[in-house]
Amino acid sequence: MKREPPQSVADYGPLFFPAGMLLIFFVVPFGTMIAVSFFQRQQGGFYTPAFVFSNYERFLSVFFGGVLGFSLMLAITVAICCVVLALPFTYLLSKMARRLQVVWLVALLSVLSLSEVIIGFAWSTLFSRTAGITNILVELGVMKQAVALSPSFGAVLTGMVYQAFPYTVLVLYPAIVRLDPTLVEAARTLGSSPLRAFFNVLVPALRNTIMATLIMVFIFALGSYLLPQILGRPQHWTLSVLITDQAIYQSNMPFAAAMAVFLVLVTLGLVALTLLIGRKGEKA
Amino acid sequence: MTNWLRRLYFFAIGLFLALPLIVVLGVSVNEKQTLAFPPKGFSLAWYSEIFVNPEWRSALVASVLLATTSAALAVLIALPLSWFLWRRIAPWANIFQVLGIAPFTLPPVITALGLLTFWATTGFYGQPWTAVIGHAIFFVTLPLVTLSLGFSAIDRSFVEAAATMGASDRTIFRTVILPLILPYLVSGYAFAFVLSLNEYIVAYMTVGFTLETLPIKIFNALRYGYTPTMASVTILFVATAAVIFSLVAKFGDLPKLLGAMAADDK
What we know:
The complex is a heterodimer. Chain A is an all-alpha fold. Chain A has a domain at about 60-120 and about 150-284: MetI-like fold (Orthogonal Bundle), CATH 1.10.3720.10. Chain A has helices at about 15-35, 55, 60-95, 100-115, 115-125, 135-140, 155-175, 180-190, 195-205, 205-220, 225-230, 240-250, 255-284, and strands at about 40, 45-50. In chain A, a hairpin with a 5-residue loop joins strand 1 and strand 2. Chain B is globular. The two termini of chain B are about 35 Å apart. Chain B has two domains: about 1-45; about 55-265, MetI-like (MetI-like fold). Mean pLDDT of chain B is about 85; it is low at about 260-265. Classes of the chains: A mainly alpha, B mainly alpha. At the A-B interface, helix 1, helix 3, helix 4, helix 5 and helix 7 of A face helix 1, helix 3, helix 4, helix 5 and helix 6 of B.
């Protein structure tokens, strides 16, 4: 049985159910959302079909610009922190014995799958005054009194790096495992220290992977929704929080949809950029 | 020297990953309803609370039901699709692969809002089964990726041999392909199951006001203050995820599933 093009309608059979599900429950809802973003909002939470740009015009406010700027800045910071932490980690992980690698991978997957609610709760406990990390510092005599470290920007950032770190490792992992080990060996034979070999050989060789990972983690962080609410103050709220807030609590679906469409455009632009970088990497 | 440095680095990362969970573990065994660490007294009462307290129990049941059914539906969508893409030459059908991966790549709030507008428009908003479909679509990526990997690992000559001996497509699927693909099917299901168990925003936006899953319950409880049950649920979830992924690692090839080449096919 060779791979062959479908001959009859029956050959398309296996495709019907998956294609139908994806079209009805992903493409249609997506289209509905785009349509609603042009609808006219009515008082009392309803909206009527129309074709207006007023929902998009609301973007041009100082408040919205501030939230957007903050969301982007936060996601970029998270992405940079994660890649800086995860790159040497993943490289060293790939050199470990297989059994040990599996243990680390299970731990990373377990943390990655944790609900944002749970991560938020765990860190808010760790940052609390009564059960938090400052109690340990008091015990050690570093601090005089236990203090609450959240809500604050640092708390939001820590929580989001915690959430995105395992993701970063798992994105980097395949590329690093496939890397030619002779590259570093050659550098070492020629007398460079492990650190020099890492920065002068490995990092340039992985340049495209690093860029693509930064973008992937950036998108991942952009989706963070609960952590800014649990660990931050209202000024630390991101676009994702604002979208939900508008949709559920302000009952302004058209505006929420317009913001979501905007977020999709930003994300798709970045995905296209990732693919472009990936293609360039293959040619090189 | 460098070996020592490397150990320190791994220890620091391990500590960073484990520290919040250690504190939550400590908090969960407090005797009284206090947020204290190190814990005051020792009690496992907050663990039995998950199963005894009707509110927490119904949230647990709702979450487990949602995760088992939505992961099953995700696999039912992914299996025929990845089989078709492997069996046939139909480049345009790859669009469905992209559609399957898209919800997972975009920020989750987008899928959530899309489904919310969709269910509100069709009049099914708030029905518990809408969350099953929502999660299945949101997490279909995971079985899709593991199954595509599994199919690409199948040696086509097995299938050709079966076909030469006169086996029909259906028989080949049942007797040759299914046994070979089963580990990937199970791990795809496991990934979707664990993530669905932990998912908040899609569930909240589609059925948040009618069905309380565990993550929704924790967040709602968090707003009204603190109860140690949150801590015991957290530990239960971490333990569940660790057990499931360990099983996947034991019966499958985890490094390969996560994209590393197996040592022999380099």
